[in-house]
Amino acid sequence: MTDKAEIADSNDLQQGHPAQGQFIYSPTANPSAAASTTTAAVPPPTNEVKGNNGLPPPQQQHHPGSNSNGKADGKDLQVEEAEHHEHKDEISPELEALLNTDPMHGLDDAEVEKRLADFGPNELKEDKKNPLLKFLGYFTGAIAYLIEVACIISAVVGDWLDFGIILALLLVNASIGFIEEAKAESALDALRQTLALKTRCWRNGHLVELDTVALVPGDVIVLRLGDIIPADGRLLGIGATGEATEGDLLIDQSALTGESLPINKKKGDVVYSSSIVKQGQQMAVVTKTGVNTFIGRAANLISITTDEGHFQKIINKIGNFLILITVVLVGIILIYQLVHFHGTEEGKVLTVLGKVLVLTVAAIPVGLPTVMSVTMAVGAKQLAAKKVIVKRLTAVEEMASVSVLCSDKTGTLTLNELTFDEPYLTNNYTADDILLYSYLAAEPGANDPIELAVRTAAEEQLPLLQNRTHKHDVPGFKVTSFLPFNPATKLTQATITNKESGETFKVAKGAPQVIIKLVGGDDDAVRAVNVLAKRGLRALGVARTRGGSMDEFELIGMISLIDPPRPDSAETIARCKHMGVDVKMVTGDQLIIAKEVSHRLGLTRVILDANHLVDPDKSDEEVTEHCIRADGFAQVIPEHKYRVVELLQKRGIIVGMTGDGVNDAPALKKANVGIAVHGCTDAARSAADIVLLAPGLSTIVDGLMTSRAIFQRMRSYALYRITSTIHFLIFFFVVVMAYDWSLPARLLILICILNDLATLVIAVDNAQLSPHPDKWRIGQLIFMSFTLGILLTALSFAHFFIFWKHFHYEPLTTPGNGPEHRLESVMYLHISSAPHFVIFSTRLTGYFWVNLPSPMFAAVIIGTQIIALLMVVFGGLTPKIPFSQAIVILLISFMYFIFLDVVKVQLFKMWSFELTAQFVRTPARRKKLKERTVRKKQQEAVWKDIDKIREVVLKLKCLEALNEQPQEEGQTMEDPQVWEEKRRTMEEEHNADKREIGEEEIKGMEVANAEEHRNLADQNGAGGSGTEAVGAVDEKHEYVEGEQQHVQGQR
C-alpha cells in the first residue's frame, strides 16, 4: 500500500531544505493564477530562488548544476524511469516456430492456405438468436407457466372469456419486454467494427494490400502512423523496406487496456489488435488472429455471459412460492370435489375443472408481470428524459439493489485526455512562463497527445494566445527555426526572436533527463521529477538559453501532465457512498497513476495490482475478500475485470459496472447493471444495460434515485399481491371444503381484472427512497404476506358468518341472482375492497401517513371500490344490498387497513437478519451470521485503536496550547477546562458516529478505518501502520502525560 511518504522526499523536508520548486499536489491549485506573461515582460535569466505552491524558498541560493540535496557523498541523483507493467501473452513453442517468417518475403500462398485452415479467419463470429425464439423466451418463468396452464385449462373446459383475458395478459407482458429490449445492439458486431478493414502485408515477396480477415499467424505487416492494428503482433524493429528504424512506435491502446498515456513499443514488444499507431513506423509479425487475440478473448467473455438476471430470479422465487400454495390448495379442492360428487353431474371432470379454474385464475397474480413491466417502462421513460437510456428493462429494478459500483478509470472517471497539471518551477519563472515557452517549442499540428495537451493548456490559460488572428502566431514573438522531435535526441528545439527587444534565444522541451543534462545537471529538478513519477504524472522539461548566449541553457521547470478526473466524478462518488454504494476503480492503467487519481477522487489509496486476482496461493474466498476491501485494482486486463465482478456476485453482492472501452465490455455484460458512459465505444455501448448520453457521471445518481423509487413501488405491489393471493386461497379453500360455497365466476374474474388494472397506476405513485441499496428479502416478504393474509382471512370469515348468522344471508350453492344470494354481494364487496386498501399500507415500511400516496393513485384505488359499491347497491351483476350495509362494509375495509398498517410497522421493527437466521437456520444464513459477528468484533477492535490515537492527538493539541506564549497584548492562553470540554465534545461526537453505523456499513469498513489509523499515526510521527503504529502511539502517549505533568508543575 502506498504511504504518504511516497508523495514527497522526506529527507529534504526533515532537513528543513525542500527542493527548489518542490510541491505536493493540491486540488485547489490553479496554474493560471500566476502572473500573466506579456510580450514585454519575459522574465530575464536570474539566479534568484523562488518557492512554489506555498512552500518556503530554500535556505541557500541555488545554481543549476549544484548539488543541493544535502547528500554527503556528493553523488548525482538520477531520474528514475517509471517501470511500465503490461500483461504478457504466452506464445506456445509450436506457434513460436511459425513466426520466423522472412520479413522481406512473407508467406507464400500455400502456407497461407494451410494456416488459414488451422487458425481460421481473422474475424469474430457471432451466433445470432432467432427473434421468434427470443420473443417466446418472455413466456418462461414460474408465474408465466402457471398462467399458461390456466389458459390451457380454460380452453379445454370451453371458458373462452377467461381464455381471452389470460392470453391477452400474457401477450401484453411479453410484448413490453420484447419491444423495450429489441433496441439493444449486438456487442460482437460492435467489436467487429473496431477492427481494421485493410492492411499492408508481405506475401510472396511483394508488399500488398489485403483484407484483414485474410491474415494468419506468421504474416509480416507494416504499421505506420494512423493505422488500426489488424491483429496481435510482435514488432520487428525494421521499416517497410527492411531499413533500421529510429525510435519506438507510439501506440494508443487506451480503449483496450485503459492506459491513459500512449505506450512506447520497441523491437520485440507485442502490439494488440484494434490499438492505434500514434507515431512511428515498423513492421510486425502477426502472432495471434481472430478469437485468440486480446480483443477476441474479450468477445468470447461477452458471448459466454448468459446468466439469468437478478430480477428474474426474484420473480421466479415469488412465483415458485405462489405456485406451491396454489397447486396444493387447489389440488386438494379438486380431489375433494371429484370424490365428494363422484357419480353425479357435478362430479364430472370438466365440471370440477371449470370450478377449480375460476379459483386458480382469481388466485394467480396474472397481472404481476404486467404491473412490474409497466412500472419499469415508466421508470425507463423518466430516465430517458435525463439522457439515461435503458436498454434492458429489468436493469431499472436491479440498479436499486446495486451495493458495489465497479468503474473503469480512463474515459469514465477521467476525461481520457492529457491536461496540464501543477508544474515544478525554478529560477523565478511562473506557471504562465513555462506554458508560454512550452508553446513556443511545440510543433504545430503534430498528432501527439503530449504536444496537444501543451498547446491546449497554453491557449486556454494565457491571455496572450487568445483572440489571435492567426492560430500559429504568437504575438510579440517569431519562431525563426524549429527542430522537431527526434526519437534519438528526445527533445524539440525552437529559435525565437522577441520582436519588441530584438533578443534571440532558444527554447528546448523534452524528456526530463535530457533537459536536465542540457542545463548542466540539477539535483533538485531530478528529485522533483522522481516525485512526479511516483505520483504517476508524466513530466516534460523546459529550458531556455541565458541572455547573450545561444549555447548555455537554464532550467525553467518541469511540466506535469495527467489524465484528470471528470469535473463531477468526485462528487458522484461521494453521493454514491452517501447512498450506500461502494465505488471501486478497476483499471488497466499503471498502479501509481491509479493511486493518484484515486486520491483526487476522494477514495483511499488501497489500490491493488492484478496479481492479487490471480494469485495461485490464495483461494477464491481470500481473493473475494480482497475485492470487497480494496478501493480498486490496477494493471488489469478484461479477464481480470470480469473476474472481479464474478467474485463479488458469487458473494451475493449486486454489482454495477461503468466503462467506455472494449476492455470494459465483458465486465459490463457480466455485471448485474452495466453502464456505458458518454463517448464510449460501440462495444461498450452494446454490452451495457444502460447508456449515458450526457457527459459526466452525475446521471448515475439520478439513475440510482429513480431505480430506488421504482423498486419501492414494485415491492409494495408484490407485498400487496402476495397478501391478496394468500388471503383469497385460504378463505375459499375453507368455505369450499366446509360449505361447498364460492363466488360466481363472473365476480371472481371481475375482482381480478379491476383490482390489477387499477394498481397499474402504482407506476406513478409517490415513493419513499431508501438511504441504502434495496433488497427484496424474500423471507421477510413472504412472512409479512402470510401475516397480513391471515388477518385479512379472519376479517373475511367475520363478514361471512355475521351476515349469514345475524342477517340470514344464506351461502347457497345453487346459481342465481335473486335476493337470496345477497351473501355473494356482501363477500364480493368485502373481498374487492379489504385487500385492495392494504396497498396503501404496503407502500412503506413505516406508517402510511409518513409519505401519502399521489392523488392519482389514491383516486384510482378508491374509485375502483366506489364502482364495486355502486354495483352491489344498484344490482345487475350481483343482487342488491342496502346502501347502509354496503357503506359500512367499505368503511370497515378502510379502517381495517389502518390496523394492518400498525401490525406491519411493528413486524418491520422486530424483523432482523439475526431473527431470520434463528427461525430458519439454513447453512447459508448460519455462515452469514457468523461472518457478521466476526466483522463486528473486528470493527470494535479497530474503533478502540482509533480512540487511543485520537486521544493522543487531542492531548498533543492541549500540550501545544499550554506551551504557546501570548502573541498580542491582552491575549491569554486557553483555559484547560475549555480544552477538557472540547475533548468531551469530541468523544460524544465520536460515539455518536459509532452508534449511527448499522449493519450495512460494517462490511468493508476495516480498510477505510485502517487508512485513517495510519493517517492519524503519520500526523504525529508514529509512522507505519497496524500494531506498529499503535505501539508508537502508546510511547507518545506516555511522553505526553509526562510533559503535561511537567508543565503543570512549572505553572
Number of strands: 24
Rg of Cα set? 37 Å
* Largest sheet composition: 8 strands, mixed
Strand content: 5-15%
Class by alpha and beta content:
alpha+beta
- Report the mean per-residue pLDDT as an integer: 76
Share of helical residues: 40-55%
Distance between the termini: 45 Å
Which strands sit side by side, in order, in the main sheet? Answer: 10-24-23-22-11-19-21-20
Instruction: Report low-confidence residues grouped into runs of 5 or more.
Output: 1-75, 183-192, 967-974, 994-1051
Gross morphology is elongated
* Total of helices: 37
Subcellular location: Cell membrane; Membrane
Keywords: ATP-binding, Hydrogen ion transport, Ion transport, Magnesium, Membrane, Nucleotide-binding, Translocase, Transmembrane, Transmembrane helix, Transport
Catalytic activity: ATP + H2O + H(+)(in) = ADP + phosphate + 2 H(+)(out)
Protein name: Plasma membrane ATPase
Write the layout of secondary structure elements.
Elements: H1 10-14, H2 93-96, H3 109-119, H4 131-136, H5 142-156, H6 160-181, H7 187-193, E1 198-203, E2 206-211, E3 220-223, E4 232-235, E5 249-252, H8 254-257, E6 263-265, E7 270-271, E8 276-279, E9 282-288, H9 294-304, H10 310-340, H11 349-363, H12 368-384, E10 388-390, H13 395-398, E11 404-407, H14 409-413, E12 419-420, E13 424-425, H15 431-440, H16 449-461, E14 477-483, E15 491-498, E16 504-510, H17 512-518, H18 523-534, E17 538-545, E18 553-562, H19 569-578, E19 582-586, H20 591-600, E20 607-609, H21 620-629, E21 632-634, H22 638-650, E22 655-659, H23 665-670, E23 673-676, H24 682-687, E24 690-692, H25 698-739, H26 745-758, H27 778-806, H28 822-837, H29 839-842, H30 855-874, H31 883-910, H32 913-919, H33 923-963, H34 976-996, H35 999-1002, H36 1005-1019, H37 1026-1050
Parallel strand pairs: 11-19, 11-22, 19-21, 20-21, 22-23, 23-24
Antiparallel strand pairs: 1-2, 1-3, 3-9, 4-7, 4-9, 5-6, 5-8, 10-24, 12-18, 13-18, 14-15, 15-16, 16-17, 17-18
